[in-house]
Design a protein that fits this description.
The chain has helices at 2-12, 20-31, 35-38, 44-52, 121-130, 132-139, and strands spanning 81-86, 92-97, 101-108, 113-120. The protein is built from six helices and four strands, in the order H-H-H-H-E-E-E-E-H-H. The chain is flat, with a radius of gyration of 26 Å. The protein is of the alpha+beta class. The longest helix has 12 residues, at 20-31. A hairpin with a 4-residue loop joins strand 3 and strand 4. Helix 5 (121-130) crosses helix 6. The strands form two sheets. The chain has a two-stranded antiparallel ribbon.
């Protein structure tokens, strides 16, 4: 990705002397940041859009951030457990025992609509037993936000 971004900006850079080191320095001066910052999670289109704005600084350039959902059950609070994988020779290596989380659409009777929650399979069984409202009340969750 950095090579693509670099080739894009090289075509827009002002003409520079033929020596490689001076052309790189001139490119950095023209861009306002160095090549490692180009590859710091920014896409070519974002860098192009940011460069065209009047008030550009590397600190204000947008980063490509993927939203990552926490691996935690919204109703029970269950999360991953640290454990060991034990071989026959009793050699222990650390492993993470994840929770079986599922995105589930559940019918909420009081709201007369579906709510989409990320819950564990254990929570699914508990919802069948107690009900969604009781579980949400115990967890302190406002179902209007989901």
């Amino acid at each position: 990705m950095a090579a693509m971004a670099l080739s894009f900006f090289v075509s827009r850079a002002p003409p520079t002397p033929s020596s490689a080191s001076s052309s790189t320095a001139a490119l950095h001066k023209h861009l306002g940041f160095n090549c490692c910052q180009i590859a710091a999670g920014r896409s070519v289109k974002q860098l192009q859009a940011v460069k065209q704005t009047a008030h550009f600084s590397p600190a204000t350039a947008p980063l490509v951030v993927q939203p990552v959902a926490s691996r935690r059950c919204t109703l029970t609070g269950k999360r991953a457990n640290n454990g060991y994988k034990v071989s026959f020779s009793n050699h222990r290596t650390k492993k993470l025992q994840g929770v079986n989380l599922q995105y589930k659409r559940l019918w909420w009777e009081d709201g007369k609509r579906f709510v989409k929650l990320r819950i564990s399979t254990k929570a699914m069984k508990t919802i069948e037993k107690k009900g969604l409202d009781a579980m949400a009340k115990e967890a302190g969750i406002n179902l209007h936000e989901y």
